[in-house]
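User: I want to check something. If I give you two sequences, will you return the structure for each one separately, not as a complex?

Assistant: Yes, each is folded on its own. Here is the first sequence with its structure:
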Amino acid sequence: MPRRQPGSSLTAARELYQEITNDPSARPLVVASWQRSIEYQVKSSCIDAPYLENPNLDSPLAKAALPILSALHEQLADDPVSTMVTDRNGVVLSRTVSHQALTTRLNRVQLAPGHVFAERYVGTNGIGTALASGRPVMIAGSQHYVEALRDFHCAAVPILHPTRRTLLGAFNLTTARQGSAGMLMALARSVAGQIESEIAAISSRRERALFQDYMDACSSVRPGPVLAINRDVVMMNEQLRSAVTGTDHYALLDHAREIADDPRFEGTRSIALPSGRIAELRVSRSRREESDAGTIFRVRVIGRPQSGPVASAGSTRSGLGLVGSSPRWLSAVAETEAAFVAGSWLHLVGEAGAGKRTLIEALHRAKGAGRRLERVEAPLSESTHATEQWLRNVRELLAEPSNVVVLRDVHLLAAHLRQQLRSLLTHLDTTATGQLIMTSQPSMVTTDDVLDRLCDASVEVPPLRHRYGDIEHLVRFFLLKYRPSGESSCSPDALTMLQRCPWPENVRQLESVIRGLARRPSVRILRVEDLPPECRVSSHKVLTTIEALERDAILRGLMDRNSNVQRTAQDLGISRATMYRKMRRYGIVPSSLT
């Protein structure tokens, strides 16, 4: 590999990349990594690894790896070798090193717990390249993209889930000494294998514990329908299978997964099913050996399926101009309307794009005669002057009884500002103030939030994926909005695909898709082949701009190659293993593309 150090400019990095590609000894894996680093526009002249406070050490990966790293640390004694484990995003979860000089050098390049060493931030390096390629990799000296890392030799091995074979993270050995690359890689492979074996053991113990609690629930005096779920397993008895079918079945599982992902929740939750019935879920956690093995749901289904839609599209608008007839949406609208009309302080919870702002504005237009709607965003700065001015503004707006004051996205407020806002609101006389409406995202709100308790009512606006039956109405509404002539329609197959999409950005994303299609004059009937790539995935994850571009490139490649994964991977210049990993990450199912 060439030894010349590139300058700080991207041009210098490209010049060195040209030398690497012309070097017969250069490995394709390293060349591909350098190419990605240039595309990410990583600065080769400085290290810039983002820092994540309090990385998750409660995951199966961390629980399996930390004892192994601790034992290995004792064996290596004062050798100038550092061991570390990262999650799949490149966040360093743990690092062990007893050599003082090496510790100092690693700290200087931010190779420490909490820092993110993904390629998009640090360029070619052992951790990032192993995660990006899905293969064991040795990055030594000048093979590193960033100059500050070129004194190190790193052997990194991906860690995969023992059964699903999905990427969990990576194990990395780093040293400043030149030695046997083969020995270093052999040790890294061995330790990664030990970690995977321990993850398998932990998973097995967890699943056995979940199965035991599931069987106990099924064999109780009055068992009824029972569901058990964790990250890897779904179990249900015959009573549940026969009681909940069709779209109700999928809606119930979707709700159950979301509840299971919140380890704080236990108790009872009632959810409205697409058929109009109510499912009452009694939630309990399966905990063994101080570990969360999964969640047990005892289910009671209330009511009978409706023979048709719960309500017609026209009647659900109730003069508010809102579209939708799903039970959860209608319930959220009714509860919000009741609080608004009564002038109660309200906390409106919902994911981004779910329709919180639309609901408030519709109520103000229909029911807010004589009242002024005032929207207040979170302050852009956390300086004392900015926060004091923001609080003063809130106080002045609430001092006018005719105002409806909307504090948007209170989950974005810093802790000290939340405390000051709480103090301000606590000392206000609610009978002589304007109406307060706060909006938040559910993943950011705790169940015992004091701000929430200051409100008279709290309403959760359901995400679009829980409003399966409303998608057809929304598609028609947006088509008419952006094609007022009414000349556009949606084919049944395209509508089915739109209804299967998880819509991580909710109604806002659906509107964006329909708006884009409506602007294409050649499209009169929306067909499956007209839909953008984002409608052909099953992932609920909200993607960054770069991730969305990568997802779309993979989807278009698969569609052009008739879902041939191998040929698409070759076209994109990535390995088949990486291709499959990225497909799992983005929820891409090749069979759904043809």
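And separately, the second sequence with its own structure:
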Amino acid sequence: MMKKITTGIVAHVDAGKTTLSEALLYRAGNIRNLGRVDNGDAFLDTQQLEKKRGITIFSHEAKLTTDDAEITLLDTPGHVDFAFQTEEVLSVLDYAILVISATDGVTSYAKTLWNLLEKNHVPVFIFVNKIDIPGTNKGQVLTDIQKSLSENCLDFSQEDQTFYENVASADDQLLEKYLNGEEIMNSDIQNLIVQRKIYPVYFGSALKLTGITEFLAGFDKWTKEKEYSPDFSARCFKISHDKNGERLSWIKILGGKLQAKTELAGEKINQLREYNGEKFTTVVKVNAGEIVAATGLTKTYPGQGFGATDAKEASLKPVLTYKLNPLDEDIHACLMALKTLGDENPQLHVTWSEHLQELRVQVMGKIQLEILKQLLQERFTLTVDFEQGSILYKETIAQPVEGVGHFEPLRHYAEVHLLLEPGPRNSGVVFENNCSLEVLTQNWQHQIMTALKSKEHLGVLLGTPITDVKITLLGGKGSIVHSVGGDFREATYRAVRQGLMELKEQDQLILLEPWYDFRLEVSQEHVGRALNDIQRMSGQFNSPENKGDRTIIEGSAPVSEMQDYAAQVRGYTHGDGIFECVVKGYLPCHNAQEIIEQKNYDPVSDLENTPNSVFCSHGAGHTVTWDKVPETAHYPYTYPLK
């Protein structure tokens, strides 16, 4: 019985990822002709845009058969601006193949990918590409990989005595077995790879097909099929549309089986398709371990879990927002097109303001914006532009507070008490319920927790989303006679905002901005200019490292200062400097006061997100401002205000 393996190829742009995919398919006998990215005839780069630019933008699927395995191969984007699509694919992989270019070594983005693989617990094989290029040194590249990624990235190209010693050293029990003279079995090594205790490294040249046969044989030998539960579970990892505009939900079956014409998440599946490049065959059912594209589903989204599988929250999120300039196009046609693209990639966060007649999108960087323009042109024949974006700021809190919301217009009643506490950096917003059933019934508690999770809560400094906050339901009050559907929702939203206003009053709110981790390589004559630039941009950097006549500077800086720096580097180094950056996450804003004054946001005037409450007296509802709520509240405070 052939084992079924899903693997994905991930890499920094230009490391040779798609070339390796083609080489593997060719060597395994699954394609007859070897395509090339630079010729625009690569088997997996099917979109016109990809052929034009010579880069992979979308993730693609191909089938590959070896002596022992049926392998589903997912090629992924290599540019940092499309990292969110790569992250979605990682959630369904059994193994990943990380391609490192021997000429570039371990780049910042390769480290980002490594961290994502770790977060998703994906076992990794490493293929060092372009080892044939003069000046590359196998030993040096391996040392760089072991230093930058893990010391347990081991050379698997020769299975000699040293190989078995290195493998055994990665695990105490195996080392004991080895020292006692017992044989190390293939299954022992397979288990260490699955447990991410060792990472096999192979060397070759995808373009010249060297090392490909050895890599395929090694992948065949050292992988093993997952064991799946008989209970149905699955994950959607991609949404796309075929040439006829049919919506496809790409799903990996993680347990049990899935059949056509059955229901999934309340919608009927029409067709199940198995793709190989652009071609597909329809199937009646798919089993655990297989990937399928389903038609007929309209509400699915990337990261969604079915059955016993939870939804997966993306960790890479856009940090820039741009406004669409429709030029001569109909703004509503642009909105419909962007909604389709936003369906495929929810991270675009397409927003339409009827009041301003404005369309906005969120992106990772300039390349993604260029691709977006070209997609609108090629798929929807819309010629548009995007105007200078602004930074997506976030807000967090510096100390705990109890927030209270009360909603009591005539014949309504709800009061909610929430504890807001600072969370770890880049942890998002998490919710907990610490309320007794004697205080609020199960139904009321459910309404409050649902309300908390159903809204993006905005801060009171700029009106931007809050993050790194834990919100716990402490208690509250309802009325069997007067509490109706939306009352607890209203009280919940007000409680969050009221707590934030208390903290604003005490100067205990922090404005956060996105930061980049960057790597800058310049000739020595440009080092002075580079270091001055980084300091001017409020950046931080490690000691510069010399590499021949080149200098490498690594550090971090605010996105607001550094977002256009690549063009400056190209300018002052006359195209010779190399600059790359990846989003590090959110850190305190370097010029918070200036930004707050610029925005001049008034949280009390933001009526959709009011911090004020509504109380009832003399038979009528009236507004009580946020600062007077504590003395008017009906339910006692758990943490009285100081």
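Because they were folded independently, the notes below concern the second chain alone. The first strand starts at residue 3 and ends at 11. The chain has a mean pLDDT of 89.
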